[in-house]
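Hello Y.,

Per our agreement to keep a running log of every chain we model this quarter, I'm adding this entry. I've kept the format consistent with earlier entries: sequence first, then predicted structure.
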Amino acid sequence: ALGLSCWVDVAFAHPHVWTDMRSQFIVSDEGLITGVRVEWKTDKAYATDALDGFPINPDKTYAAEDLKKLTDENLSALADYGYFVFFRFNGEKQPIGKAFDGLQTFNPKDGRLTLLFSVSLEQPLDPHQGTVTLKVHDPESFIDFGYVDCKPILI
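Predicted structure for the entry above:
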């Protein structure tokens, strides 16, 4: 039996960042889950604060090297929190590795940043052998994660 589930906590404390989120399981050719690719689109207020001090181009965009620097800073800080990514297999917490393939973009039309990155599992999981659960949340409720309405979870 194939068992996969994803869920997100609703924040009850006062969040400082609101994020629209999408997750995609990374699956090997053998059908094992090896990690997750996440996409977080932050609110405009956070984007304004995060980009403060970076020069803005005439077309209201930011230089790729500045967005790369911000991405590296974000992923470095998120490492202390396990990137807010929590895997379980048959109820048992699974260790993860470091984030990779980080990319951040800025949309001048809506003023929001989108952070994409992947996190690998230390050991691949076979969904045919049990239930794989992915939970993306901030236990301290500083960031409010909410799945997008259109294609929130991709496999």
